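During the no-cost extension, the postdoctoral fellow (Dr. R.K.) reprocessed legacy sequence entries with the updated structure-token encoder. One reprocessed record is reproduced below for audit purposes.
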Amino acid sequence: MKTLPVFKRQKPAVISPAKTKDANYSSQWRLIYLKFKKHKLARISLVILAVLYTVALFAQFIAPYGLQSYDSKYVNAPPMGLHFIDADGKFHFKPFVYGLKSERDPETMRKMFVADTENRYPIQFFVRGEEYKFLGLIPTSLHLLGVEEPGRIFLLGTDGMGRDMFSRIVLGSQVSLSIPLVGVGISFVIGLFLGGISGYFGGWMDSVIQRIIEIIRSFPTLPLWMALSAAIPPRIPVVTMYLYIVIIFAFIGWTDLARVVRGKFISLKNEDYVVAAKIAGVSDGKIIVKHLLPGFISYLVVATTLAIPGMILAETAMSFLGLGIRSPATSWGVLLQEAQKIENVALYPWKLFPLGIVILTVLTYNFLGDGLRDAADPYKK
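Re-encoded structure tokens follow.
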């Protein structure tokens, strides 16, 4: 007689914490983060941008001199090099700069600056200088670096009025990096709101919003800048000018995002889960916030990141043409005004340093946007 096999009762499978942790990787933002980590150029760009914005935040502390500081004896002076070995071949642990003395070119009779090896000025850190308000709140006169009087330090040379280019580039970063960021933020809100209304509700609201977008986009960019800039009253405070420039960029920049949001809403509002939410009596606002926006929020992040370089270039172009920020305030575009004349560029090439900073910033934003776009693409490995 055959005996039947005995089946042992198996214990229920226990999911280990490690497997539970691995399951969390399937979330959208986690996958985007993991894919972004593989994009080395985007990660490097993120670090560079973090450094640039840190410099802009502590600009007055980092800059050796203020915006109004100038010295007529050092007009168009070349950049000073940092030295560790002096003219006698002696090594110094502390870096130093040589003083500058002016001479005349025997052929062209043009004023030139040469290093004065008899006067050596060691670089000092955390020195006292011009007073300012740290972070706009705390009065102080402490600066990151400097040299003892009567020495001067011009790491990137001076402009046509004897003002330190390094200090002006650092201080100008506060305007050139913040205006595009604030402008894109306002454009993002306007574009998301109007684009969402246009795509979700449709009808006459869609027609009105689309006609407004077409009217704004039909104007050539430069004449529109000029018209809006002419509407700004002359001799207004710097802060007010800043706000006006931000409003100009926000007024122009929201149309592209609004059209993209409209198209996304039109394609998603007829999906089954949206229709089910409507049947269940969910309000329109909750459907938009809880169901529609999460479907393409990663795209919105990428689009916003890629829009910032365009606004940086726009602010630089406006200030370069005299339509944006004006003296006594400064930005990278204002600093490039002296490069309009070819003789200035030929004789004093260090005046193009602000252009290099603009190119670096735009490239890093573009690389960061490319990395985010690749990470947010579900079909890209």
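The first strand starts at residue 83 and ends at 85. The chain has two domains: 80-153, 167-376. The remaining legacy entries will be reprocessed before the final report is submitted.
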